[in-house]
Design goal:
- The complex is a heterodimer of chains A (110) and B (113).
- Chain A contains no helices and nine strands.
- Helices cover 0% and strands 45% of the residues of chain A.
- In chain A, a hairpin with a 6-residue loop joins strand 3 and strand 4.
- Chain B is globular and about 40 Å long.
- Chain B is 0% helix and 57% strand.
- In chain B, strands 2, 4, 5, 6, 9, 10 and 11 form a seven-stranded mixed β-sheet that branches.
- By secondary structure, chain B is an all-beta fold.
- Classes of the chains: A mainly beta (110), B mainly beta (113).
- At the A-B interface, strand 3, strand 4 and strand 8 of A face strand 5 and strand 10 of B.
């Protein structure tokens, strides 16, 4: 599996935007970029995914570099409920299960 | 209904006990997964079931025995576990095809004494 690299931890103030980076320099042409997050004492939950173009949904935005070697998850206004571990995962078009890296632990300060 | 339920929420067992973890979904998903998550670590894949057949076993010790009795249920049978098997056990499901979202249950917190 192509690997991803994320900072171990990040901190944000409440109601400010948060940009969570992910490097994936060995990404292949068929790999989709998925983001999941895991809130304390819960199972992981889907956030967003994309292939080449930037993506928006009600939870977040995903900005993908033109060469696809990096991406950024953007939370537009962080809330205390967004404190979680955020995982950036590459998955190909096939029916492969999610393989988690270490993720970024996001702390949100009131 | 996009819910994956897992029972029990917490389980404490001795090393000689036999117990089972249960996962249930009613979304019609045909791929089901077991993950193990140690404290402060990411989830690690254990088993994958596709159309009720075991398709991936990530070299998991035989003291963990998965079972998929029907398309809605996934069990994990536990026998002769070790204290280092204490962890959060997560179930996940997905529609079979391609790159669809995986839905995770809340997990069972297992403690082996």
């Amino acid at each position: 599996d192509a690997k991803t690299t994320q900072p171990n931890s990040m901190e944000s103030n409440e109601e400010e935007p948060v940009h969570l980076p992910c490097n994936h320099s060995t990404i292949s042409g068929t790999d989709y970029i998925h983001w999941y997050r895991q809130l304390p004492s819960q199972g992981p939950e889907y956030v967003i995914h994309g292939l080449t173009s930037n993506v928006n949904n009600r939870m977040a935005s995903l900005a993908i570099a033109e060469d696809r070697k990096s991406s950024t998850l953007i939370l537009h206004r962080a809330t205390l409920r967004d404190a979680a571990v955020y995982y950036c995962i590459l998955r190909d078009e096939g029916n492969t299960p999610l393989v988690f890296g270490k993720g970024t632990r996001l702390s949100v300060i009131a | 209904d996009t819910e994956v339920t897992q029972t029990p929420k917490h389980l404490v067992m001795g090393m000689t006990n036999k117990k089972s973890l249960k996962c249930e979904q009613h979304m019609g998903h045909r791929a089901m997964y077991w993950y193990k998550q140690k404290a402060k670590k990411p989830p690690e894949l254990m088993f994958v079931y596709s159309y009720e057949k075991l398709s991936i076993n990530e070299s998991v010790p035989s003291r963990f025995s998965p079972e998929c009795p029907n398309s809605s249920l996934l069990n994990l049978h536990l026998h002769a576990l070790q204290p280092e098997d204490s962890a959060l056990y997560l179930c996940a499901t997905k529609p079979e095809a391609g790159r669809d979202t995986q839905y995770f249950g809340p997990g069972t917190r297992l403690t082996v004494l």
